[in-house]
């Protein structure tokens, strides 16, 4: 079996390290996947601000492509995850809209498989099984797991974990031997969708999230969203700067993979020096 | 104090709320003004009109106030409100429905955010995918905001994160999806140089 892999636009650009580290982890664990051929943009945060139908039809094209491969669709990007899940939900619950969209696409959609996040896939593989593959314990690394918005909300269709008190990311991260700190801003919004149009505001949101992590003893932040990663990495202005890792970067490191292969050299806040100081890279 | 003559809006109120619901603003008429959405909104500190107030405007049919409120463009779409509303109102959905209607009716309150969305969609239409490099350049032209983040852009370029755009094979199929967009493909006089065209619009309404 396996999965149809949907990288999304960011992973082909500013979040290329998330693409690299995701593929590296999947390969290492022997999880089968194929990139969805000729995938298109899911519309991200713009389509639904411009047209309600487009917000469903853009992701729907990718859903139907995956269905033709008869594989569940999986994406590392939390924003794509949200758009794909939302469209899947809409196509199944709104027959009128579904008809309109599917006619233009000239395909059917049964919705056999729910679109998944790469975290779902890793979780299905099992935290224990992931832990067994760890060769380099990330001991003494104190991590703040940051979920952000779109993996958890709206709970109608984004069902990765409990929307107010999630815990799955911590479980995955702790399999590496790192310790997840308890902190309050795990599900706060960092304002990434306004990063270009309202930068000042977003700087204050990102800085307060990072400061909160610092105050609770974290040495780094870990996330599963390219918008959150880029935003926190670029917009934090606090006195202590924290590197912001993708979950797959830390997992890959714990699997003993080369930091370069994981893209760790392409962050804004230096992502290597903390690891070097701990003799992890 | 501001007085509001509600009788002026008689007849319109229900139809406006229905338009909002049709655009994805689920159950806006169920709001009972408890304020929970505003209490938990991470952007409320930067909003003159709070989310629950915007819900009230929609319920009362104060369409001009709701559509001109900067709040609808400040909303980051985080769904905290929608998750918590005791009445099942999709507040985030109401916000995006109001953005959709404001754009369709040419209400220009937040030029930057509007420019961003237009440029974003024009690129999907052109290539089938977003090229972040072109997105940023065009957005900067459109919003006359050329120098911000130049340093970040340069570093990303050096890291090989900003690449020239390439279209996908199925771009025609993607374009076909845009024909359903309100106002058809025409409103997107976005086609060639969306950024530059947008700079001609005046700010305000
Ligand atoms: S939480 Fe729901 S019911 Fe309460 S004010 Fe907001 S929209 Fe209305
Ligand atoms: S979706 Fe918008 S209105 Fe609702 S809590 Fe988030 S920023 Fe506030």
Counting structural domains of chain A, the number is 2
* Chain oligomer state: heterodimer
User: What proportion of the residues of chain A is helical, as a percent range?
Assistant: 40-55%
Radius of gyration of chain A: 18 Å
The structural domain count of chain B equals 2
Largest interface in this structure: A-B, 56 and 64 residues
Give the overall shape of chain B, derived from the CA principal axes: elongated
The CATH homologous superfamily of the largest domain in chain B = Alpha-helical ferredoxin
The CATH class designation of the largest domain in chain B is Mainly Alpha
Overall pLDDT score of chain B: 82
The low-confidence runs of chain A, each spanning 5 or more residues with pLDDT under 50, are none
User: What composes the largest sheet of chain A?
Assistant: 4 strands, parallel
Task: Give the tally of β-strands of chain B.
Answer: 0
Beta fraction of chain B? under 5%
Low-confidence stretches of chain B: 183-205
Level of helix content of chain B? 40-55%
Bound heterogens, unique: iron/sulfur cluster
Give a short synopsis of this structure.
The complex is a heterodimer of chains A (281) and B (205). With 281 residues, chain A is of the alpha/beta class.
């Amino acid at each position: 079996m396996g999965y149809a892999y949907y990288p999304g636009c960011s992973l082909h650009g500013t979040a290329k390290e998330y693409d690299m580290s995701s593929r590296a982890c999947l390969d290492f664990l022997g999880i089968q996947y194929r990139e969805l051929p000729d995938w298109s943009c899911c519309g991200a945060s713009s389509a639904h601000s411009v047209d309600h139908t487009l917000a469903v039809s853009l992701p729907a094209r990718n859903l139907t492509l995956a269905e033709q491969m008869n594989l569940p669709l999986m994406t590392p990007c939390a924003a794509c995850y949200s758009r794909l899940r939302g469209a899947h939900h809409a196509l199944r619950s709104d027959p009128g809209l579904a008809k309109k969209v599917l006619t233009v696409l000239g395909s059917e959609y049964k919705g056999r498989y729910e679109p998944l996040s790469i975290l779902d896939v890793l979780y299905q593989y099992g935290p224990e099984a992931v832990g067994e593959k760890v060769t380099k314990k990330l001991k003494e690394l104190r991590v703040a797991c940051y979920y952000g918005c779109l993996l958890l909300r709206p709970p109608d269709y984004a069902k990765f974990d409990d929307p107010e008190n999630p815990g799955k990311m911590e479980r995955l991260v702790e399999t590496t031997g790192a310790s997840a700190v308890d902190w309050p801003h795990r599900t706060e919004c960092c304002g990434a969708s306004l990063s270009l149009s309202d930068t000042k505001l977003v700087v204050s949101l990102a800085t307060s999230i990072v400061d909160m992590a610092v105050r609770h003893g974290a040495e780094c932040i870990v996330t599963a969203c390219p918008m959150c990663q880029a935003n926190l990495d670029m917009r934090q202005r606090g006195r202590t700067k924290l590197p912001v890792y993708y979950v797959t970067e830390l997992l890959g490191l714990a699997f003993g993979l080369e930091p370069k292969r994981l893209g760790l050299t392409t962050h804004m806040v230096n992502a290597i020096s903390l690891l070097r100081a701990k003799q992890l890279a | 104090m501001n007085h509001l003559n509600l009788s002026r809006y008689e007849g319109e109120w229900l139809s406006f709320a229905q338009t909002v619901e049709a655009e994805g603003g689920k159950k806006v008429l169920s709001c009972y003004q408890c304020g929970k959405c505003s209490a938990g909104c991470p952007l409320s500190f930067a909003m003159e009109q709070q989310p629950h107030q915007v819900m009230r405007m929609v319920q009362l049919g104060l369409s001009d106030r709701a559509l001109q409120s900067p709040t609808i463009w400040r909303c980051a779409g985080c769904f905290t409100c929608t998750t918590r509303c005791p009445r099942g109102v999709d507040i985030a959905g109401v916000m995006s429905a109001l953005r959709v209607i404001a754009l369709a009716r040419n209400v220009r309150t937040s030029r930057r955010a509007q420019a961003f969305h237009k440029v974003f969609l024009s690129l999907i239409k052109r290539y089938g995918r977003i090229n972040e490099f072109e997105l940023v350049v065009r957005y900067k032209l459109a919003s006359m905001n050329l120098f911000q983040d130049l340093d970040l852009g340069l570093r990303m370029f050096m890291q090989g994160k900003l690449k020239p755009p390439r279209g996908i094979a199925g771009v025609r199929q993607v374009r076909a999806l845009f024909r359903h967009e309100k106002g058809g493909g025409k409103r997107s006089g976005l086609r060639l140089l969306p950024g530059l065209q947008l700079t001609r619009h005046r700010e305000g309404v």
